[in-house]
Amino acid sequence: MNNQIALYQQVILDHNRNPKNFKKLCPASHFSEGYNPLCGDHLWVYLNVCKNKTISDISFNGEGCAISKASASLMTDIIKGKSIRDVKELSDIFLNMLKDPNNKDLQLEKIGKLKIFSGVSKYPSRIKCASLCWHALIGALSSDQKVSTEE
Question: What architecture is domain 3-148?
Answer without folding.
Answer: Alpha-Beta Complex (3.90)
